[in-house]
Amino acid sequence: MEEEPPRLPIDVLVVGAGNFGAATAFELVKRGYKNIALLDLDSSPNPRAASHDINKIVRDDYPDPLYMRMLQKAMPLWRHHDNYKEYYHEVGMLRADPSNFGPESIASYKNLGIHSDARMMPVDEVRQGWNGVFADTNFGDLSHVLYNPNVGYGEAEKALGAVLKLGAERGVRFVQGTATKLFLGPDGECQGVVLETDQILRANKVLLCTGARTPALLAASAPENKLLHAGDRIIATGAVSFHTTLHGEQRAKFQRVPVLKNCLPEVKGESMSMLEDGTFKFNCDLCFTNYAVFPATGDKMSLVPDDDEHQVWTGPDYIKFFKEKAQKTMKGLYGKEVEGVAIENYRMCWDASTPTHDFLITPHPHSPRLYIATGGSFHGWKFLPVIGEYIADMVSHQLDPEYAARWAWDRAGNDDHSANPTYQVIGDLQDFAKA
């Protein structure tokens, strides 16, 4: 292996230019760090990253006050800051949820002294509003749904691209490539990463913002050292998105409809508000693993597939199981309003899920100079304007103790909750692909 020719010594090497990585690199240079490097395949949003997407939900309704406090800082930035406001669209959001999520979120606003216009809206009122697009929605036996007019969606790829550009303008050094393993000293200290070219990229600190690929990267770095491995702390999980395009009168009818998340078992999905060009994106509100034997260890683990077909946007021909799920979700969300609407593209989005859907933002206790920031668990993107502050605090060993405890490598109890009580694992990709 050859070391990369020295330039300036890298202070912090951020591996992965998705949401967490791009935001942290930008935050570190804002704080005066001079030698920050960001490693990824492309200086624009990587289409394989979870953060690369058409649009994603931006909401602040969390029963959990820890995350609501973060969004108390993030929402004004989405609305008003020049870095983000262009990509944020406050169209409101409806959440059909048989749990107590709605009332608990409203109570959380009040407990934290946060003004919100969120309310439990009668289903009859929902059906009569917004040009009647929800007239045939499957709300089951629900009498009320949570309506929050003060949230919406963000154009994901564009917002992430803007943060990457801002970081580069402030001095973040982009390094193109893929880390295949960590470069560890004899005592397990992380001294850098090994690239696919066998070059060694050294750094004073290494921050892994590698999402669903984190477990494999750690295991490949020291196959025999189980203390380095992620274990069950983070699991690579996939979820399916799909989109269509509306035209003519139908497009006019769906202008600025709110985001809809429907948690009912017979629907389990989300619809984003339509973009100006008529693009309408949906998510199936579930996730799955992809277990296979990992060559470096000989053990089975959930792995992100290597081929593009199972990572990036594809055409209308897809795995039968997911095509059926998508049709069921779209029908449950809009019923007769979307009869005859063809799904044009599908995508598997891979993220790192944790047992409680809390993030994992922590120094690695068994490898000095190694830091981890992952575990988005399909709800991390909305924190883009502020997540870099928390991760930068962690790298500087200044993270607020409450957050440090919740996001620790080894959590002390408190596992009887879910920070994002949806996107539960329903099975394994290999089984669905064979069906």
TrEMBL record:
Belongs to the MSOX/MTOX family. One of its GO terms (molecular function) is flavin adenine dinucleotide binding. Gene3D superfamilies: D-Amino Acid Oxidase, subunit A, domain 2, FAD/NAD(P)-binding domain. This is FAD dependent oxidoreductase. Transmembrane segments: none annotated. It comes from the Eukaryota. Residues 11-394 form the FAD dependent oxidoreductase domain. SUPFAM superfamilies: FAD/NAD(P)-binding domain. It comes from Stachybotrys elegans. Its cofactor is FAD. Keywords: FAD, Flavoprotein, Oxidoreductase. InterPro entries: FAD-dep_OxRdtase, FAD/NAD-bd_sf, MTOX.
